[in-house]
Amino acid sequence: MGVLLQQWAALAATLPQRVLGLVGWLAAMALLFGVLERLRPVRSQRFLRSDLGVDLAYYFLSGIVPAFVVAAATVAVSWVVSGWVPARFMAAVAQLPLALRVALLIVIGDAAYYWAHRASHALPWLWRFHRIHHSPTELDWLVNTRAHPVDLMVARVVPLVPLLVFGLRQPGLRDMETVAALYLTLTTVWAFFVHANVRVRLGPLEHVVTSPAFHHWHHHHEAGVPRDCNFASLLPVLDRVFGTWHLPRDRLPSVYGAADPLPPTLAGQLLSPFRAPPR
Ligand SMILES: [Zn+2]
Ligand SMILES: [Zn+2]
Q1: pLDDT, tens digit (0-9, with 9 covering 90-100), for 239-277
Q2: Ligand lying closest to the C-alpha of residue 196
Q3: Bridge partners, 256 (sequence order)
Q4: What's the pTM?
Q5: Is the dihedral of CA 66, 69, 75, 77 positive or negative?
Q6: d(Cα 56, Cα 164) in Å, to the nearest integer?
Q7: Of 253, 254, 258, 240, which Cα lies nearest the Cα of 213?
């Protein structure tokens, strides 16, 4: 507990720098995706849309809250791992070639995310939180950040647990901490990209890595098309293996959103999971 309080105090002390960093990131992402969305839009949408303010609030919440939750989860899971996973196993993982450890981190991390995300659709009490992410009827890059803190917690903590248990994140493995930081940065930028209002198809690469078309179908609300599809963050092969892949070659969804409407304000949306009936 003492370790966690120290980490939280350190995080709290760096909050001003963190907020400044988030402002910088926001400017960079707005520039990059703002230009892309003007050059090749899926459909013409207003940049200054009505719920822009709410999504900006979600952006800052998403940039601050998970760090505290992930620190708590890391301390708790590491404590369990140190008691239950043999030190010899951890040492053996540390000896594996870096390339293999990186591949394992990506596959195990994304597989865990896939199941956490699929559970967020399948379990009514998790859907109450996740449906906020599915509420927009128009997609753009900033919709990526629209997520309830509880939803974010599930998405961040579930992949972290197997990585700690399998020794791919462990004290002393400095190279893996660098890899994990790069992986988080890459998946964050990619998550903005796959939500963007851009008409970009990646050809054969769409079998290897997720794309805007892939994730736009995850947000579709078309009648007659399977509703729960394309859960992976980075590796679409997971959806192929588990039977949830849906990616027409020649078209994008015509309707986005979720059935149940949400309150328009941030406070109303954050409280809605505790009030609304499950789907
Ligand atoms: Zn979803
Ligand atoms: Zn999404």
Answers
A1: 999 999 999 988 899 999 888 788 889 999 999 999 856
A2: 2
A3: 220
A4: 0.92
A5: negative
A6: 32
A7: 253
